[in-house]
Amino acid sequence: MNPAAGATEVLRPAPGKWLAMVAISAALAWIGTRILGTHPVVGWSCVVLFGICGALAVLNLWPGASRLVLDADGFEIVSLFRRTRVRWAEVARVGTARVGMHRVVGFDFVDGHAGGERLRRVNRNLSGFQAALPDTYGRSAANLAALLEARLGAHREETLTPS
């Protein structure tokens, strides 16, 4: 077995992106407070919407709130403290896709994977993949996809090689 493929690796999101989101949200919420007197509905809508966006961005800066954990068995996505575990045996392919203006890392499940068929179909129509990672964790999408593909390949080699 490739030692690097078996080692646990923890990737965390780049804090700069989330700090920028906090700053932009705060600025737009402040603008909302400035127009409350003349346009109360628009003002309150801005304050609430961008206040929530800012709060979510602050949460993503919290240690342990968001990360990607890679190990010999698969990967665990932690997003806003919610954990999703995907085993390498469940992954058919990994690659990059463009969703709007952003490059993301997507993956398809193996045939027969249970659950979420409707959501996987919607995701496939949006990105070309059945699922995608919520972040690139401070790397380019291509670099992260290559890392996951290498781990997936090492897992397949290990399962095909008799002990």
Automatic annotation (TrEMBL):
Pfam family, one: bPH_6
Low molecular weight protein antigen 6 PH domain ranges (all copies): 66-98
Protein name per Swiss-Prot or TrEMBL: PH domain-containing protein
Transmembrane residue ranges: 18-36, 42-62
Domain of life: Bacteria
Keyword terms: Membrane, Transmembrane, Transmembrane helix
Record keyword Membrane present: yes
